[in-house]
Amino acid sequence: MGSPLSLISTTAQQKQAIPLSFGALIKSLTISSLTLILFYIWFLDKSNNYQPSNLLETIKQSFPAAATFPLSRPPTNLSHIVVGMLGSINTLKQKQAYIEAWWRPNVTRGYLFLDKAPTTEFLPWPSSSPPFRVNEDVTRLKVYPKIVNPVQVRIVRSILEIHRESDKDVRWYVMSDDDTILVVDNLVEVLAKYDHTKYHYIGTSSECIKSNIDFSFDMAYGGAGYILSYPLVAALSTKLDECIERYPYSWTSDFTLHECLTDLGVTLTQEKGLHQIDLHGDISGLLSAHPQSPFLSLHHLDAVDPIFPSMNRSESINHLMKAAKVDHSRLLQQTICYHRPINWSFSISWGYSAHIYENIFPRSTLRRPLQTFRPWKKNARPPFYMFNTRWPSNDPCEAPHVFYFDSVDQRVEGYQTVTTYSRAAPRGLLPCSSSGNHSADFITKIQLINTTQVIYRSCMESEIIA
């Protein structure tokens, strides 16, 4: 029993003989200093001349960053956002319906910037539309003779002009075209994650590789809408005309803005919910496989087919907004599920479409949009798109049964939202034989029931959701 005690004693003596390392010396000095400070505070506390506020003031003066805490700010809401829409009096008649589909009178803040004052056919100006402003005359600019595209300079200078409106409590400026649909409630939720007191340039690229090659992969496309924080617009407004003088050869307003912001050291932050729609034809394949991101905007509505095949373009957008008014955060969010007893796969784009496949497909496949659309430029060569696609097929084991959003019903009891999707047309194919000949031809409507009380959990170890 004696030898262990002897060993411990010997070890202790050896430690005392080893000189202190540099780290141990610093640690020892730190502890000693703290002890002296605490003693000093205790001694002053005992004396009659001690003033606590003096010591605190000394600390604040010596360490202002550590002593000053930022005041909490209220979360971003719709009143903090000002929207600038760019339009022309020549196209106002067909574009005004798109604006009124999402604009909320006396709630949304913003302006429609026009190249000319509205003619008598538009007066009196409707209260269902945003207030209009006529852009300043760019011919008065000193650099005007060198400008290759005055219309685009008018458009980019709208940033300066909207800032001059001097609206109060602005955190964000959203700039878009007059044929752009915005989901403003989703914009609020997305912008709430950013610090509006810093410089932010938020937008998206084109869907087409060729367009991004022609301009820039780092440029926000204005049709999709780009978002600028207030401090950035305040700084840009003092430099914009100077920047236009540096780049009079710039052909588009979006590229001019990109050049100006690059000179300020500001780069683009991408948001996948913004959509330029540099596409032609039927974009249902894209909208049925929307990325897992809040749906924010849709552009080039006159360049694509109506998004609901039984309606015109204006009716289609108003129909989509019915779903947005009930549950904006779910709009176009894709849900994939399976009925394994008969080997069916379901892909739901909430508020837009539902697909039934008579086969089991992995989620990685169904999240790729069906290429129902064409690229923006006819002379483009593959690869066309900035995302993966899959070709439509006449194989009954690959072609979906397609249903489109019909109605939405919000039931107070049970906190349920019920969306109904109706078949667009007969598929016209035989059942999928390789998965058991379980035809879905007899289904004419699909009802999707969502509860407002959704509980998420992390996947457990080795758990597979497919």
CA-atom Rg in angstroms: 31 Å
Report the top-level CATH class of the domain at 78-270.
Alpha Beta
Strand runs, count: 17
Overall shape: it is globular
Strand order, sheet with most strands = 3-2-1-4-7-6-8
Mean pLDDT over the full residue set? 87
Class computed from helices, strands and strand pairing: alpha+beta
Oligomer state of the chains in this structure: single chain
User: How many angstroms does the end-to-end distance come to?
Assistant: 64 Å
Transmembrane segments: 20-43
Keywords: Membrane, Transmembrane, Transmembrane helix
InterPro entries: DUF604
Account of the protein in words:
The chain has 466 residues and is an alpha+beta fold. It is 30% helix and 18% strand. Among the domains are: 78-270, Spore Coat Polysaccharide Biosynthesis Protein SpsA, Chain A, CATH 3.90.550; 331-361 and 393-466, no CATH class. Strands 3-2-1-4-7-6-8 form a seven-stranded mixed beta sheet. It has a six-stranded antiparallel beta sheet with strand order 11-12-13-15-16-17, covered by helices on one side. Helix 5 (92-102) runs parallel beside helix 14.
Can you describe this structure in just a few lines?
The protein has 466 residues and is an alpha+beta fold.
Compile the SSE list and pairings.
Blueprint (H helix, E strand, L loop, with lengths): L1 H16 L4 H25 L5 H11 L1 H4 L13 E6 L5 H11 L6 E6 L17 E3 L15 H7 L1 H6 L8 E6 L3 E2 L1 H8 L9 E3 L5 H6 L11 E4 H8 L2 H7 L6 H11 L4 E3 L8 E3 L2 H4 L9 E2 L14 H14 L7 E6 L4 E6 L3 E5 L5 H4 L6 E3 L25 E11 L4 E8 L21 E7 L15
Parallel strand pairs: 1-2, 1-4, 2-3, 6-8
Antiparallel strand pairs: 4-7, 5-10, 6-7, 9-14, 11-12, 12-13, 13-15, 15-16, 16-17
Helix pairs in contact: 5-14, 6-12
